[in-house]
Write a structure and sequence with these properties.
Blueprint lengths: L4 E4 L3 H12 L8 E4 L3 H8 L4 E3 L10 E4 L6 H4 L10 E4 L6 H8 L4 E6 L9 E7 L5 H11 L3 E5 L6 H9 L1 H18 L4 H21 L4 H8 L5 H10 L3 H20 L2
Parallel strand pairs: 1-2, 1-4, 2-3, 4-5, 5-6, 7-8
Antiparallel strand pairs: 6-7
Bound molecules: 1,4-dihydronicotinamide adenine dinucleotide and (2S)-3,4-dihydro-2H-pyrrole-2-carboxylic acid.
(2S)-3,4-dihydro-2H-pyrrole-2-carboxylic acid binds next to helix 6.
Length: 266
């Protein structure tokens, strides 16, 4: 019999992870219980063969409890899982620290945090993990193995870095999606049909990200390879890089996300 996993909250992030675990064969559907108050989302999860329930009332035991609910409801949600004494707890909530979970659980529990991102839905997420002192090596390996079904896994030893992680990779896909929107809109303004502009913008970001990851070259080197002296790219980069305009804007955006992550944990 495999380890019993309870997934609390099966919205965007919870469902993305659930699909990864099941499709990679990391967990058998019968070993997973989903707790989700929303009936439609319960039905969506149940279609994968997992056990579903509207609240924590019926749960007897679990090896791992995964919280994928909004940070704003953590304080209301966690106490119902106190009685699962042998469980390790894993939270994907932005901001909320391990100390808060220990306080809500009322004991020195084994608590892990993970900052995922939505590309996890197609196995291409960035999953950054922190474990407190009470999590043993075997459990850590099990959880990291589960998360690997959703993408690349990295670990951090200093929980304070989680706010920066959230600002870069947790929220990061939204920045990239907005860049695609902007590039497509600019292409349209430059005369391309809307669908063509969208395809060009999307495939360009996709291809550039794959090249950056797979070539082993520094992003700066790859940028220089596109930039012919006196050519079109140099003209565009003069706008983006002049007075470090884009660098400054991205820096401000990441700082704002990091600040908000800290606030959500207060
Ligand atoms: N969406 C994203 O890109 C990312 C989200 N996160 C974190 O993931 C967490 C969930 O975010 P989303 O999935 O986007 O939100 P969501 O709103 O899609 O999902 C949250 C789910 O929790 C359910 N829920 C509410 N009360 C509950 C309860 N008492 N018991 C069980 N389930 C309950 C809701 O019905 C909802 O389906 C948040 O803490 C967020 O910070 C982290 C990284 C990326
Ligand atoms: O926007 C948020 O608060 C969540 C955390 C990282 C991505 N989405």
């Amino acid at each position: 019999m495999g380890r019993k996993v309870v997934l609390v909250g099966c919205g965007n992030m919870g469902y993305a992870m659930l699909k990864g675990w099941l499709s990679a064969g990391k967990l058998a559907a019968g070993d997973v219980t989903v707790v989700e108050p929303n009936e439609g989302l319960r039905a969506r999860a149940a279609a994968h063969g997992v056990v579903v329930t509207a609240d924590a009332g019926e749960l007897a035991a679990a090896d791992l409890v995964v919280f994928a609910v909004k940070p704003q409801v953590i304080r209301d949600v966690v106490p119902a899982y106190r009685r699962l004494e042998d469980a390790t707890y894993l939270s994907v909530a932005a901001g909320t620290g391990v100390a808060t979970f220990e306080e809500l659980l009322g004991r020195e529990a084994a608590v892990m945090r993970c900052m995922p991102n939505t590309p996890a839905a197609i196995g291409k997420g960035m999953m950054v993990v922190f474990a407190n002192r009470n999590v043993g090596a075997e459990t850590k390996a099990f959880v990291e193995g589960l998360l690997a079904a959703s993408g690349a896994v990295a670990t951090i030893d200093d929980e304070a870095l989680m706010d920066a992680v959230t600002a870069v990779s947790g929220s990061g896909p939204a920045y990239v999606f907005h860049f695609i929107e902007c590039l497509a809109a600019a292409g349209e303004k430059a005369g391309l049909p809307a669908e063509t502009a969208k395809l060009l913008a999307m495939q360009t970001v996709y291809g550039a990200a794959c090249l950056a990851k797979e070539s082993g070259e520094e992003p700066g080197t790859l940028r220089e390879q596109v930039t012919s002296p006196g050519g079109t790219t140099a003209a565009a980069l003069g706008v983006l890089m002049g007075e470090e305009r884009l660098a400054e804007l991205v820096g401000e955006a990441v700082e704002a996300a990091k600040r908000r992550s800290v606030e959500l944990g207060e």
